[in-house]
C-alpha cells in the first residue's frame, strides 16, 4: 500500500480541510515529518490508519470520538479521504465520523465510501457502503489486519518497542494477533473440556464401582473370620481384594448350596412316601364311612314303605274320576249359562226402563229448541251489521300499532341519546385528567435529553477517572515494590561487598602463609615481609562468592524491571492526567472528587431512570389521549346520527297521530277497538253456532233414542225365550251327573271331589314310587359290594399319620428355605463379582482415556519442563524467524556487537516461557536481558525487529505488497554513528522500492533527508502541512 493523496477534515489539530499530496515527493521515497510537539505529526499517521481501519494508529488513541478536532465548527463533520495505490491499481476510501449537532438529540453524518479508481472511473468495492463490508473489503485487499499493519507498515510512537521489551504475555498477545495463533488456544480449550468430560466419566465409573462394592455389605451376610469380612473391616481396600474374597464366598455358598440341595431331595422323597401312605389310609376310611352312610339310607327307604302304599291307593281312586269329569264339565257349563242369562235379563229390564225415560226427555228438549229457531234470524242480521265495520276498524288498529311502535322507538332513541351524552361527558372528564397529567409529565421530562447527554458525558469521564484512579493505586503499590526491591538490592550489594572483601583478605592470608623471609613476594617482589596478612575467620570459597554475585545480579535485574515498570506507569498516568484536568478535576483532591463524582453520577442515573419511566408513562398517556379522541369523535358522530333518527321518528309520529284522529271521527265509539269488535262478533257468532248445534243435536238425539228404544224392546222378547231353553238344559245335566256318581261308586259328591287328581300330580306320584323302589334296590346292592370290599380291613388312625406328614413338611420347608438362601447368596456374590469386573474394565478404559487426554492437554497448554504451550511453540517458531531476519540488520547497525537471541529461561510463578529476548554482546561475551540496553540500542533493536517481522509476515501471508513504512519517533536516543547507520538502513529499505516516512525532532535526520513534510501549528492551535523537497 502506497499513499497518493490524503484529505483530512476537522481531524485532530486540523480545523478545516487539510490536503497532503504525496506525489509532491516525486522520486524521493524517504521523507521526514517534522514539527513541534503537539503540532499534529502523529495525527497524520492516525488519519491513514483511520481511513483504512476506522481506528487511530496507537492503542492509547483507539477511541474514534477523540479524533474530532476541538476547533471544528458544529456543522462540519470529521472525515478522512485517502487515495492509495496497491499492485499497480489505485483506490479511494472515505470515512466520516458521526457527531451530535447542536440542537439534535442523536448523532448524524456517518458515511463510508470505497472505490477503485485505476482507470479514472470509480468502481464500488463493496455492495453496500456500511462499516462491516468496508472493513472486510479492506482486509481482503491489503491481506493484513490493523494489528499487523501497526507492526509492519505503521510503527506508532512507543508501539513497535513492545515486541522487544514487553513481558512474555504481551509478546504472546502481539504474536497471537499478528499470526492468528488464537486458533490453537481454542484447541487447548476444547481439550480442556474433553479432559473435564473424561475426568467426570472416570470419577463416575469409580463411584459406580464403589456402589457395587458397598452393595455387597447388604447383599451378603458378613460371616465371622472370612476374607470378605476382614477386607471390609479394613480402612482402605481395593477391588482386587474384594474380588479374591468374593471368589471364596462364591465357592463357599455353592458348596453349601449343593449339600443343602442333596438333603432336600432326600427329605422330599420321604415326604412323598408319607403322603402316599396318608392318601391310601384316607381312602379306606372314606369307604367305611360310605358303607355306614348307605346302611342308614336303606333304613330310611324301608321306613317309607307305608307311605308308598297310601300313595298307590290315591292314584287308583283318581283313575276312576276320569270318566265323570266330562259329565261334570257339561253340568257346570249349563249352570253358568243359566246364571248368565238371568243376569243379562236383569240388565235388559233396567236398560228398557232407562231408554223409555230417555225418549221422554228427548221429546221435551226437541220441543224447547224448536221454539228458539226464530232467534237465529235476528242474530244473523246483527253479525252482518258488525262485519261491515271490521275492515275499517282493522285499518284503524294497524295505525294505533304503528303509533305505539313509533312511541317505543322515540323513547329508545331518547334513552340512547341521553346515554351517549353521559358517555361523552365522562370521556371529556377522563380526557381532561389525562391531558393535565400528560402536561405535568411533559414539563418534568423536558430536562431528560440534557440529563441523558450529561450522563453520557459523565460515563466517558468515569472511564477516564476510573482508569486514572486505578493507575494511581497501582503506582502506589509499584512504588512500594520499587522501594522494597531497592532495599533488597542494597542489602544484597552490601552482603556481596563484605563477602568479596573477606574473600580477598582470605586469599591474601593464604598467599602470606606461603611467604618466607628472603623469598620474593609474587605481588610486590620484596624479600622482607614485616606485616604479613592474616585472617582469623573462615575463608569464603570462590563458589560462595560466585553464588552471591549471581544473587546480586538477579536482584539488580529485578530491581531494574520494577523500576522500568514504574517509569512506564508514570508515563501512562501523565497521559491520563491531561484528560483528567481537561474534564475539570483537580489532581490533588482526585480521590474525594472521584467519590463525589461517582455519587453524582449515581444520582443522575437515578434521575434519568425516573425520567425515563415518566417518559414511558407520557407515551402511554398520549396513546390514551389518542384513543379517547377517537372514542369522542365516534361518540359525537353516534350522537348526531341518533338525533337525526329521533327527529325523523317524531315527524313520523305526528303524521300518524293526525291520520288516526281523523279516522276516529267517522267510527262509532263502541266499535273503535278491533279487539272489542272481534270479541263482540265472536260472542254473537258463538251464540249462533251454539243454537244451531243444539238444534241439530236434539234432532239427532231424539232419532237415536227412538232407535235404541225399538232395539231394546225386540231384545227383551228374544231373551225371555232363550231363558226357557237354558233352564231345560240345566235340569237335564243335573240328572245325568247324579246318575254317573252313583254308577262310579261315589256315595256323595264330596267323596268324588276329594278323589280328583290332575294328570301331572298322578305322574309325579307314580314317578316318586318308582324312584323309591329303584333307590332301595341300588343301595342294597352297594351295601353288599362295600361289605365284600372291606372284609378283613380296619379304619386307620389318620391323626397320627397327619402329624408325621406335617413334621416332614416343616423339615422339607426349612431345608428348602436354607437351600434358596444359600443359592441366592451364591448368585448375589457372582453377580457382584461380574458387576465389579465389568465396571472395573470401564474404569480402566475411562482412566486410560482420561490420562491420554490429560497428557495431551498438559502438553498443549505448556504444563511441561519448558513451560511452553503448543500455541507458544508455534509463536516461538515465528519469533525465531523474526529474530533471524532482525539480526541481519542489527549486526550492521551495531557494528557486529549485538545479536538478539530467544531466551530459554523459565518465567517465575509458573508462567509460560519461551518468548523472552536476550542480547548477546560479542565485545564482552556476555548474554543479558534486552531491557538493560540503552535507549538508542533499544531503538535499533526494535527497528530491526519491526523490519524482520514485516519480512516474516510478508512471507507468511503470501501475496502481500508492503510498499510503505512509517516510523514515529525514537531517533533522538541515537548517537551520531548509530543515527548514520539507521539512516543508511532506511535508505537501503527505500532503495528496495518502499516509501518510508519518519517522524522525528532530530535536526541531523531532517538535514540528511532531502524530502520533509513540515507540520506547523498556529497560535490559535490549528495546524497546517507543506512538503519541502530539496
Topology of this protein?
Elements lengths: L1 E10 L2 E8 L8 E6 L5 H13 L25 E8 L2 E8 L14 E6 L6 E2 L6 H12 L3 H7 L1 E2 L6 H4 L2 H12 L2 H38 L7 H7 L5 H64 L2 H16 L3 H48 L3 H70 L3 H66 L28 H41 L7 H75 L9 H71 L4 H7 L3 H31 L8 H64 L8 H24 L4 E5 L14 E5 L4 E4 L5 H23 L6 E5 L7 H16 L3 E5 L3 H6 L2 E7 L5 E7 L1
Parallel strand pairs: 3-13, 3-14, 8-12, 12-13
Antiparallel strand pairs: 1-2, 1-4, 4-5, 5-6, 6-7, 9-10, 10-11, 14-15
Helix pairs in contact: 5-19, 6-18, 7-8, 8-17, 8-18, 9-17, 10-15, 11-14, 11-15, 12-13, 12-14, 19-20
Compact description:
With 1030 residues, the chain is an alpha/beta fold. It is built from 22 helices and 15 strands.
Written account of the structure:
The structure is a single chain. This protein is α/β, with parallel strands linked by helices and 1030 residues long. Among the domains are: 174 residues, Rossmann fold (3-Layer(aba) Sandwich), CATH 3.40.50; 123 residues, 3-Layer(aba) Sandwich (Rossmann fold), CATH 3.40.50; 226 residues, no CATH class; 125 residues, Helix Hairpins (Orthogonal Bundle), CATH 1.10.287. It contains 22 helices and 15 strands. The chain is flat and about 205 Å long. InterPro entries: P-loop_NTPase, Rad50/SbcC_AAA. Keywords: Coiled coil. Belongs to the SMC family. SbcC subfamily.
